[in-house]
Every structure is written in C-alpha cells, then in structure tokens.
Specification:
This protein has 176 residues and is an alpha+beta fold. The protein contains four helices and seven strands; from the N terminus they run E-H-H-E-E-E-H-E-H-E-E. The protein has a domain at 9-125: Gcn5-related N-acetyltransferase (GNAT) (Aminopeptidase, 3-Layer(aba) Sandwich). 26% of the residues are buried.
C-alpha cells in the first residue's frame, strides 16, 4: 500500500460538483458491495442540492455532511458523508474512486471528516455499516479505530445472495 500525501483536503459537496464527480459516482465498481443501484445524473443533482444545505433528501430531521476528497491539482479521490440524526446517532459512509483505491487515502479523508464533524457537533460516537464481503472498507474502519459492534445476519442482498451487515462503532472521549 502506497503512502498517501498529506496535501489531500476535503471540500463541501455542492451542485457545482455534480458534473465533475458523476463519472466517478456512476462507476459500477463502487456499488459492488451495496444494495443501492447506480444513481442517475438527476439523482446525484438532487442529492448534492441537499448536501450543500447539509440536509438529507429523505429525512427532514437529519444533518447531512458530505465532502469530496481532493488531491492537488483537482484530482477527485472519493466522497465521505456523515449523517447526524435528531437523537444524536451519527453514521459515516465513504467511497474511494476506483483509480485511488488501495493507496491509503480513505483513512485520511475519513479522519478529516470525523474531525470536522466532531468540531462542529457534540458527537459521542459514530457508527458505520458495511457488507461483510467489503474487506477494504472494513480495514479502513478498523484503521480509524472502529470496533465491530453488531452483526445483522442476512440483512443485505448483494452479489445475488444474502449476506451479513456489519455495524461498527467508534466512541469519542470527552477530552478528544
């Protein structure tokens, strides 16, 4: 695994990013371990309009933070999002674009997103759900300090078969 440069930064997703990121976000490899269908251009436009407002397109009470990870000059590495629900439950999700996978970028940009969310909100914990077959994402979460919290048996239908959804948990101390 290569060492990722420290010049990677996060930029809040806006509607201006749609055209720049759609080719990446419609890459079938990103959906290999997800039940989600590849989004259409219109769906991405809709999502990014809400993301720019930090609102979820399908949950009025959720704060939705979404960033694109960028290397100079304008190399888009991936996206990361953190949803914060009214009851304080928070969940992270991320996608590293195909040309940047397995190079050590995801832990860096996810760590940056976590730090920004912690700075703005009084998060006590963060959760992540990942398909049991997605070993790369599991490794990223474990590198970030997440611990396996729960296993939802046969909760997902991926690659034409039922598989487990793994729930990871990261607790923050008050002195972080």
């Amino acid at each position: 695994m290569g060492k990722a440069p420290v010049s990677l930064h996060l930029e809040k997703v806006t509607p201006d990013h749609v055209e720049l990121l759609y080719a990446h976000l419609s890459d079938p490899i990103l959906y290999e371990y997800l039940e989600d269908e590849i989004p259409t251009l219109d769906e991405i436009k809709h999502q990014f309009k809400f993301a720019a407002l930090e609102k979820s397109p399908d949950n009025d009470s959720m704060i939705w933070l979404k960033w694109v990870a960028i290397l100079p000059p304008h190399q888009y590495v991936g996206v990361v999002e953190i949803g914060i629900f009214a009851d304080g439950y928070a969940e992270i999700g991320f996608m590293t674009f195909a040309n940047f996978q397995k190079q050590g970028y995801a832990p860096i940009y996810c760590s940056n997103a976590i730090a920004q969310a912690k700075e703005r909100f009084n998060l006590t914990a963060l959760h992540a759900s990942v398909n049991e077959q997605n070993y790369a994402s599991r490794q990223v979460l474990e590198r970030l300090g997440f611990k396996l919290y729960n296993i939802n048996k046969n909760a997902e239908f991926v690659k034409d078969k039922l598989s487990d959804e793994l729930i990871y948990h990261l607790t923050f101390s008050h002195c972080d």
